[in-house]
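JOB MANIFEST
job_type = single_chain_structure
chain_count = 1
residues = 91
[input]
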Amino acid sequence: MRWPILILLLLVIVLQYPLWFGKGGWFRVWEADRDLAEQKAVNQKLEQRNASLEAEIRDLKTGNEAIEERARYELGLTKPDEVFVQVPQKR
């Protein structure tokens, strides 16, 4: 009576192995889900960056204010009869 139970138990273990550890098993599915969640977070950050760059490009193409602002802050340009004053920030 003991041998058939052991054989059946061994058969169940052999059949369960591919489900848990084989190619496409649960552990690989969990790992793929984790990798997918990480990639979605990276993609979301990149989408936000792309949206801000796209808005900046649109602003530079359509208006002079963005160009003027960049010229003031990056190049230190001023209008005629205007004095440029820069206040250092505390670190």
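[summary]
Residues 25-78 form one domain.
Residues 30 and 76 are 54 Å apart (CA to CA).
exit_status = 0
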